[in-house]
Amino acid sequence: MKHFLVLLMVALTSLRSSCAVTNGATNAGKLLDDELAAWANLPPVFFCGEAVPVHEEAVARRLVSALVQKSSYNQALYEIRQRAASFFPLIEPIMERYKIPADFKYLPLVESSLRGNAVSRSGAVGYWQLMPATARELGLTVDNQNDERQHLLKSTDAACRYLRFLYVRLGSWTLAAAAYNNGIGNLLSSIKRQHESDYYYLHLNAETGKYLYRIIAFKELFDNYVSYRPVLPLDVWKTLSEPLKNIKPAILDEEKPLLAESMIIAETQLAANQPVLANPATAKRQQETPLPNAADVFRGGIKARLAKAGVLKRGQVWVFQLTRDGMADGKTVDQGDVLYAIVEDIDPKLNKVFLRGDKLYSKENRETYNMTLSAVDASTGRIGISLPDMEQVKAGWISTWKVL
C-alpha cells in the first residue's frame, strides 16, 4: 500500500501543477517509472466481482491515470455526486430487475454525466448514449416527436437489456462494458485477431482501452475514497467526503446545464438545444426485434469522421478523415488520411443508404490509393446506413467502414 500511495501522490501532484506539460511532466513520468516495481502491492480492485489485475504495470498505469483525470475535475465532482444521489435510486431497481451488477450505474456518468440531452458527434443520445439503430432494436421510439433515449427510465431499461445481451454473448462483464462502448462486432474482431478474450490484455482503440478504467475510477472515488485519503488534494477530499445537502428528486423532463462540461469525456459533445432526431415517416418501433447474433457482426473495420458531406444522391462524393491508424485493403492507413466515398445506392425498400469508399489519400506518403470499403452500421456490422440515421448526418459524424 505504501508504494501505491506514493505513486498516486506523484500522479495527482504532477497533474495539479501548472507546469506539468513542460519539464515537470518529464520528471513526474520518471518518478512514476521508478515506482513501477511496486505494483504488486496495490490493494485489490474489483469490477462486477471480477478482479482487476492491478499487479500488471499497464493495468495499474491506466487505472491511476483515470483516477487522476476524474479527481482533477473537482469543481464538478460535488454536482455529479448530487446528480448521482438523485438518479441512482431510480435506475438501480431497473438494473436489479435485469440482474445487472450495481457497478454499471457509473457507466452513464462516463457516457453523459447523467444528462438526458447529451449528444455525441456520432449520433448517440441520452443518459446511456444509445445510437439510433440500437435504440430502435431495443424497442425505443426515436423520431422528431419523441426520442426515448432522453427518457431516463425507458432508456435505462433498454440499456440494461442490451448489457444483459452482451454479457450472455461474451460471458464477461468487462467485455460487456467494452462492447457497449465499441460494438460487439469490433470487440469480437479484436478477440479473434489477437486470440485473447481478457479485456485487460486486449489491444483496443484508445477510447475503448480506457473506457472501463473511467467507470472504475468513478466507483473508487465515490465509494472508496477513504482509501485515497493520504493522497487526494485537500479540496478533492472535502468534495468527496462532504455530506450531500438538499438532494432533490431527479428532473426527468427539464435538464439544467452541467456545472462543468469538461467532466464529460472528450468523445461526448453536448448539443442541448439541437437534439439528434430521426424522421418520423421512416422511424419504426421494433419492440421484439432481436439484436444480431455474433456470427452476423462484421470482423474488422476502420473509423472515419465526416469532413465534407455531399448531396444525398447517387454518385455524389463525400469526404471523410480517418480517426485512427489501422489496416484497410491490405494497406496501412493512418489517422488523418482522407477517404473519398460515393453514394453508391439509396434503397427505399431496405430503407438504407450505401456508401462506398473508392480512394484514400495518404498524408504521409502523399499518394492516392484505390480502395474498396463500405460504410456499415457500427451496432450490427451490416452494410448500409439507415435513412433515418442519415438524416442526422452533419460534419463530425463518425462512420465505420469495412473492406468489401
Q: What is the topology?
A:
Blueprint: H1 2-16, H2 23-35, E1 46-47, E2 50-51, H3 57-72, H4 74-97, H5 107-112, H6 132-137, H7 152-170, H8 173-182, H9 184-194, H10 206-223, H11 234-241, E3 302-308, E4 317-322, E5 326-328, E6 331-333, E7 338-347, E8 352-362, E9 367-376, E10 385-386, H12 387-390, E11 398-403
Antiparallel strand pairs: 1-2, 3-4, 3-11, 4-7, 5-6, 7-8, 8-9, 8-10, 9-11
Verbal overview:
The structure is a single chain. The chain is α+β, with helices and mostly antiparallel strands. The protein folds into two domains: 74-263, Lysozyme (Orthogonal Bundle), CATH 1.10.530.10; 298-403, Beta Barrel (Lipocalin). It is 37% helix and 15% strand. The protein contains twelve helices and eleven strands. A hairpin with a 2-residue loop joins β1 (46-47) and β2 (50-51). α1 runs antiparallel to α2. Residues 1-41 and 253-299 have low confidence and may be disordered.
Q: What key attributes describe this structure?
A:
404 residues; alpha+beta; Lysozyme; Lipocalin; 2 domains; 6-stranded antiparallel barrel; two-stranded antiparallel sheet; 12 helices; disordered N terminus
